[in-house]
Amino acid sequence: MEKMTLAEITKAVDGSFGFPADAEITSISTDTRTIKPDSVFVALKGKSFDGHNYGAKAVSLGARAVIAEHAIEGARCIIVDSTERALLQLASYYRSKFDIPLVGITGSVGKTTTKDMTALALSSKYKTLKTQGNHNNEIGLPLTLFGIDSSTQAAVIEMGMSDFGEISKLSMCSAPTAAIITSIGYSHIEKLGSQQGILKAKMEILDGADYEAPLILSGDDKLLSSIEPRNGRQIIYYSIKKKTADVYASDIETDEDGISFNINYKLSGGGSCKARLNCLGEHNVKNALAAFSVGLTLDADPQRMAEAIAKFRPHGLRQNVKSVNGKTFIVDCYNAAPDSIKAALSVLKQTSVSEGSRRIAVLSDMLELGRQSKSLHRLAGEYVAASETDKLYCCGDDARYYVDGAVKKGMPQENCIFFENKEEMTEALRKELKEGDAVLFKGSRGMKLEEAVNALE
Prior knowledge:
The protein is an alpha/beta fold. The chain is built from 15 helices and 21 strands. The longest helix is centred in the middle third of the chain and has 16 residues, at 282-297. The chain is globular and about 75 Å long.
């Protein structure tokens, strides 16, 4: 972060104060564990915490002032109506100080992988900042923007949401110069009502974007592929199926370690280059095409981008492939919706198994699907049957409907096993799994399916 004065910060957040404000600030914090000397602490409030209770502590640790909604004993305070809004205002002001390309990314599935691949692609030409972890909300995004400094040449910012208006706030704060929407699925349909509602919420990414900011969309997504340009905005489509797209993949070949393919592009004079991903799943080819597309708009060299994207590796609880006692575990327990289950099943299908070994899908509930939960679990079950998975193990409240969908599409009933709880399923898996099997673990974050993985390791 570049230096700002307290007076500058106060003006940016429309605050009031009663003390000398010429001090220079070098960091912004919302957590006393990250306080540094010459910082400002923002006292956020949540359902189970109130940062105002830690204002005096923040000052004792080196903070010069606290942005607060009321006075705090033992702390110099910049008083605002809302500390949450003040954090966004301050980040927006700070972002405006830097004339750099900033790519905003959202979507129901694939936004984090696309963010990582996009950062790799742009890093082939620019020093690039990216969102770390899941800092894609109204707290994490502003803190990411404060990471921009005079050496930053580009930024890649992920935007998450669960309701209308949230992406709009993030877009207005970050002012993207290019926007990517990866997909329109079913996540958060409980609040947003329909896929059309989800599309409307995702399109808010343009609210803070300049009219010249290109919109980069998947031509393989039913809803996104029908979007028409407005007000002269450039729309760039990428696809693994349609050669009419601006950027498309061809000659896709899968081996046990990854996928090789050609990237063909009509932008920047047109051309093609060879690419490779050292991970499985054709959905990851789509993510790479999105990253490549935005790089073309910023004049990055195609071959260098392809080489940079090849460095991508899944991590954490997102399609993390590892060997466990002779078995292959695909751990994808960060979130779950029908489209992400379909994507994860494609990885399972492409995972090599020895003769006589099996591919097994272990699924727990998809959450926040509202009234459509049962039907969407059935749909995901149909995806299991279509993926040629040998056995299905599942647990949770609505997971039984995975079985209904799988059996409907021809999977043998005896190969689809439902459990009331995770513990019973884990014990059954402990007895069932054999050396050489490939096992996918997939469920919503709240189901904590990784606990089953840990117990089986």
